[in-house]
Design brief:
With 294 residues, the protein is of the alpha/beta class. The protein contains ten helices and twelve strands.
Amino acid sequence: MERREIDGRTAVYGLMGDPVEHTLSPAIHNTMAELTGVNLAYLPFHVPAGCDLGAVLKGAHALGIMGMNVTVPHKKAVMPFLERISPEARAAGAVNTLVRTETGYEGYNTDVLGLSENIAISGVSLTGKKVVLIGAGGAARAAAYLCGRDRAGALYIANRTPENAEKLKEEVEAAWPDLPVRTLSLADLSSPGERDLIAVQCTSVGLYPACDRAPVTDPAFYERLTHAFDTIYRPEKTLFMEMAEKAGADVTGGLGMLLWQGLKAYEIWTGIRADQDQAGLIRSRLEAFLKEEG
């Protein structure tokens, strides 16, 4: 595996979000570039919340940036400034991958594939299951899309801001009218209720370096779960996962989702699909990095 030197022909890609200091995405894309002999460099771009995203995209386009991943808090906010949005991204209500065109950027959503792959590898099916989403942002929209696509039995959306949960509920009901959807407050999750739930944690609560936090702190909630998925990958095992595991649930972290959504974005940009050996090597690098850090 030979590292290419950056030169005048190097294509620049990156990640825009706030924060981005924690990201492992450069390791995915720069390693794939090494493995596949593609002359590209992938960098993190700190784009503060509340900034003028239209101006950001115009500047990126003028600089010739060929594509970007989009993370919190911009996955939905960036959509009005795009030339085109893929049907899947529109249905999910969020964009996480941008592709440069002559006049601007097109938007795609690879979070759906990443989360779907992570759930499938865990041996879990959402079909007919009761799913609790914690959060109502971009990752939650991807999870809600999967619940509709895979015909979940019921969907519960719990969020700190009730208005955002209600808005996501309306979007899900419009796209998947046969899926029963309810909104809850985070406090509601501490009340006695249905069991055999699958929980998908889609907020940034517990993200490094604030690893001592969880969106739900009542142990009784975790006793109602059969499986708990966290979309956070740093730390590799969050407090949310630790509490679920202690209560007897199976747990899966967000590293697999990060890996597969990244590899799909790389495929969109370059036309090159990662094979299992490449995916395994990159995952090993990510795991080693997290262990070294922790």
